[in-house]
Write a structure and sequence with these properties.
Layout lengths: L2 E5 L7 E3 L2 E3 L3 E4 L2 H9 L3 E5 L6 H9 L5
Antiparallel strand pairs: 1-4, 1-5, 2-3
């Protein structure tokens, strides 16, 4: 799933808007449609890089699951 970093036009904005919570002008969302809409309205939108899962991460994830 993609994540987006949204930066408000007013860099010091802290509060709620567009269903997001901004702190010091920055919020995050995984809603691609919202990110596109905000970009059109003058917000800076950056797609966040997702770290690739390593083999160790996959092994740990399966080990943490309850056994049947």
């Amino acid at each position: 799933m993609k994540k987006f970093k949204i930066t408000a036009p007013v860099a010091t904005y802290t509060g709620s808007g567009w269903g997001l919570t901004f702190a010091a002008g920055v919020a995050e969302t995984d809603d691609a449609k919202l990110a596109k809409k905000l970009k059109k309205r003058g917000y800076k939108v950056e797609e966040q890089k997702q770290p690739k899962a390593t083999k160790a991460d996959e092994t740990k994830a399966t080990e943490d699951q309850p056994k049947e």
